[in-house]
Design goal:
CATH class: Alpha Beta
Number of helices: 7
Strand order of the largest sheet: 2-3-4-5-6-7-8-11
Structural class: alpha/beta
Largest sheet: 8 strands, mixed
Strand content: 25-35%
Number of strands: 21
Oligomer: single chain
Distance between the termini: 42 Å
CATH architecture: 4-Layer Sandwich
Length: 322
């Protein structure tokens, strides 16, 4: 080989080796996208659905349950991911936790349930939780430096991997943030206080709402009865486990958790309610997922680990959270 050819091929070979190493290192993530894209857009269902009490149809799409203590579950059982958002009403104002993917206008449901001013807070920023944000005048986000940096000309700009709406053809909304809420901040609705707690793991910016008076946790995608996603970009197994153990310590045996997805027993539709023991089971599964070896027979991607009879954990490899 000539000196000139050597000067060309050596850097090229080094570049190819580097690219191969990066591809091998990120192959699980590429596989995750393949899995996610192959799963396709959830189909809208017109099948006969049986609503468990206290759910009742609001129209031909939304189902609503009065949970008592001024709270309502707003479900979308005809949408493939079966989202549930929660409206908590105080004496002076109300808070809507999540808004669904935006297939239909959730503000009409909210207006039928309360005439009070409504503050909207998403549990995290995936597309199926923020689709109706722009329909509300008061939008809150967690006061995190990374989110603050995403404000451009007074509007919050969603990141590509933060929103993920391209998978199902949803476009990121354009919203102005009216309130930045500190982690552990109390939100006074008048006669009802909700504490916003940071629970990184599913995403870095995931939050839950704790109603100490009602002994309830509105959990978003932190926990729900179905497949728990801990493999998409931004997921962190170690942080997720810490969040789960922290929530388990906060709750007691009489606490009720309301998740953001249900329909795990179609055609019957139930409000996705869970207990502290479910959080403990999730924490244990996350701790198990944060270790891995070639001897582990569950190394397909996403890795599937049992949580309990109602949940499975879909997890990334531990090194991908670092």
């Amino acid at each position: 080989m000539s000196a000139r050819a050597h000067r060309i091929w050596v850097p090229l070979a080094a570049l190819l080796v580097l690219a191969a190493g990066v591809a091998l290192w990120r192959m699980p993530e590429l596989s995750a996208w393949g899995w996610y894209l192959r799963s396709g857009s959830p189909q809208m269902s017109d099948a006969a659905l049986a609503l468990g009490p206290p759910l009742a149809w609001f129209d031909d799409y939304y189902a609503v349950a009065d949970l008592g203590a001024g709270a309502y579950a707003i479900g979308e059982p005809r949408y493939g991911q079966c989202n549930f958002s929660y409206l908590i009403v105080g004496e002076h104002r109300a808070l809507l936790f999540d808004t669904g993917p935006g297939v239909r206008d959730i503000s009409k449901v909210v207006q039928a349930l309360t005439s009070l001013p409504v503050l909207v807070l998403p549990s995290h920023l995936h597309f199926d939780h923020v689709g109706n944000l722009a329909r509300f005048g008061e939008v809150a986000l967690p006061d995190l430096p990374a989110l603050r940096r995403q404000v451009r000309q007074g509007r919050f700009v969603f990141g590509f991997y933060q929103h993920l709406g391209f998978v199902e053809g949803f476009h990121a909304p354009s919203v102005a943030v009216s309130q930045w809420l500190q982690p552990n901040q109390l939100i006074d609705l008048g006669g009802r206080e909700l504490e916003m707690l940071s629970v990184p793991g599913h995403t870095p910016d995931s939050v839950v709402l704790y109603d100490a008076l009602a002994n309830r946790l509105y959990a978003g995608d932190f926990i729900y009865p179905s497949e728990i996603y801990a493999f998409l970009p931004g997921a962190d197994l170690e942080a997720y486990a810490r969040s789960a153990w922290r929530m388990a310590r906060l709750l007691n045996e009489n606490s009720t958790l309301y998740g953001a997805h249900g329909c795990d027993a179609l055609p019957r539709v139930e409000v996705p309610a869970l207990r502290r023991r479910d959080v403990e089971a999730l924490a244990a599964a996350l701790a198990a997922a944060d270790s891995w070896s070639l001897a582990d027979s569950r190394y397909g991607y996403p890795r599937e680990l049992p949580v309990n009879e109602r949940m499975r954990l879909l997890a990334k490899f531990p090194w991908m959270s670092r």
